[in-house]
Amino acid sequence: QMEISLGAVQSQEELAEFWQAYLGKKGSIAGLMKELGKVSAEERPAMGKFINQFKAYAEQRYQEVRAEMDRKELEARNKNEQVDITMPAVKRPMGSLHPITIVKDQMVDVFAGMGFEIYEGPEIEDDDHNFTRLNVAKNHPARDMQDTFYVAEDIVLRTHTSPGQIRVMDAEKPPIKVLVPGRVFRSDSDATHSPMFHQMEGLVVDKKITLCDLQGMLDEFVKKIFGSEVKTRLRPSYFPFTEPSVEVDVSCFECGGKGCSLCKGTGWIEVLGGGIVHHKVLENCGIDPNEYSGLAFGIGIERIAMLKYGINNIGLLYENDLRFLKQFKD
Ligand code: PHE
């Protein structure tokens, strides 16, 4: 028979062992009861009473030790789980928007203020939308202006957001005033070109839309993005889907137009292309060019971001280096 002293019990397990050894069905107190038969009839009542008293005493002590043990355990647990509400909170590092997203959102804001709505077309386009209906026929030399990624015969990764013009005019009747932001793809790669980049197309079709409307809108846009002191200038250019076509320059915000390395001494920086929607493009979409006219423009979002933030290598925009990205907290 093992000996367990209640005073020395340290754990719930030892306490259970104590119960089994003395108070349980096979414990020594139950054993004593069984021995009662061997005691004489005269002594038996007194002996029985004594054993019962002893059992009650042992049970009471057992309960006391158990209650004390429970109390100590609870105390320890409470102490462990205590929350110090005066501790400073853990600061979670804040992320930031990608510079392309920041600039895109700003551009959308400016044009939304002029009443433009957003349309997003597919990144995989057919030849028809990307070229043919934009007045770029199969053997048109202008196809060489953009090095196209072909997905299949007559299926391309869109080389510009201009197919969005066709999709919008197919779906809506004038008046139309939409922005088409999105990713575009060209097989071209150097410090200022990436095979994937972003454009923002603008299209307005209504009665009596002229080049003045284009200049007014873009002047407003440029001032909101680069500063109110910046001036715009239109230069004649060529795109198959606009006639006349223009290249839009802004006065250099680095040197104020005096000439520096950013503007290569010219005082002007080229920022985007646009023009009056070619009558053939309107006709291709079932819009009568005698009743309506349109303006369109295409802005390279990377180009605007690089100019605005002085980023000299387009690759930095896609490396996801946090040291670079953290600098653009809007
Ligand atoms: N799509 C032309 C480009 O990617 C830009 C443009 C858009 C020009 C709309 C005129 C009108 O170069």
Structural class designation: alpha+beta
Q: What number is the mean pLDDT?
A: 92
Q: What small molecules are bound in this structure?
A: phenylalanine
- CA(first)-CA(last) distance: 79 Å
Extract low-pLDDT stretches: none
| Global shape | rod-shaped
H/I helix tally: 10
Q: Let me know the number of strands.
A: 10
Family: Belongs to the class-II aminoacyl-tRNA synthetase family. Phe-tRNA synthetase alpha subunit type 1 subfamily.
Catalytic activity: tRNA(Phe) + L-phenylalanine + ATP = L-phenylalanyl-tRNA(Phe) + AMP + diphosphate + H(+)
Main location: cytoplasm
Domain Aminoacyl-transfer RNA synthetases class-II family profile: 109-327
How would you describe what is shown here?
With 330 residues, this protein is an alpha+beta fold. 36% of the residues lie in helices and 21% in strands. It is built from ten helices and ten strands. A seven-stranded mixed sheet has the order 1-5-6-10-9-8-7, sandwiched between helices. The chain has a three-stranded antiparallel sheet with strand order 2-4-3. Helix 1 (12-23) packs antiparallel against helix 3, helix 4 (99-112) crosses helix 7 (211-226) and helix 4 packs across helix 9. The longest helix has 38 residues, at 44-81. The protein is rod-shaped. Residues 160, 162, 201, 239, 242, 273-275, 296-298 line the site of phenylalanine.
